[in-house]
Write a structure and sequence with these properties.
Elements: E1 8-13, E2 17-26, E3 30-33, E4 43-46, E5 68-70
Antiparallel strand pairs: 1-2, 1-5, 2-3, 3-4
Length: about 100
C-alpha cells in the first residue's frame, strides 16, 4: 500500500458510484478520509482490504459486509472540484 495522508482515493459508494475523498489519517488498521478516529467522523476503511468500516450499521471485515470500498493500492484519478460533503477533504467527483 502506497497511500499517504493528504492524497485522494476513490471511494466506490454502493460499489458503483465513484467519490474522491482525501486521506486525513492512517493508523495500523484504518485509512480515515475526511475525519478522525478520535471524534468518529469521516469515512473509515480497513487498511488491509479497503472496505468501509462502520460498526453502527454493521459494515466492515468483521461483519463480512460493507457498502463501499477504496482501492488501497492506488490514489484517486478523479479531480476533486466540489465543496466538502462531510468534514474537510470529502468531495463529490465531477461526474456521477
Amino acid at each position: 500500500m502506497d497511500i499517504r495522508v493528504g492524497e485522494f482515493v476513490t471511494r466506490m459508494l454502493g460499489f458503483t458510484i465513484p467519490m474522491s475523498v482525501r486521506v486525513t489519517k492512517i493508523t495500523d488498521t484504518l485509512i480515515i478520509c475526511g475525519g478522525d478516529e478520535t471524534d468518529h467522523t469521516g469515512y473509515w476503511f480497513d487498511r488491509r482490504t479497503g472496505v468501509e468500516v462502520d460498526e453502527e450499521i454493521g459494515w466492515g471485515p468483521q461483519f463480512r459486509f460493507s457498502g463501499s470500498f477504496i482501492d488501497v493500492d492506488k490514489p484517486s484519478s478523479l479531480e476533486p472540484i466540489a465543496e466538502p460533503l462531510m468534514g474537510e477533504g470529502s468531495f463529490v467527483p465531477p461526474t456521477l
